[in-house]
Design brief:
The chain is an alpha+beta fold. It has helices at residues 3-13, 20-39, 85-91, and strands at residues 44-46, 50-57, 60-63, 70-73, 76-83.
Amino acid sequence: MTRSDLINELATKMEFQLPPEDVATAVKHTLETMIESLAHGERIEIRGFGSFSPKVRPARVGRNPRTGEMVEVPEKRAVHFKPGKQLRERANGDE
């Protein structure tokens, strides 16, 4: 599902009609807020869906697959997603 698919689904499923442009604005601001929170090291939990946690991947020594040469891979930040119980159950067909 793409962002535009999500916007269209939300616009048609809401009890009160909102134009897709308003839904797009809400989705945009929601995602921007989530990105800002994660960038500041905050964890985001959406009950029933899952949680997003910022993680630091430590620096390590890796290998260049073409040359076999050992290279230093610097520390980097990543986002870890852990699905919630309801999402896991629905994904596994355990509704």
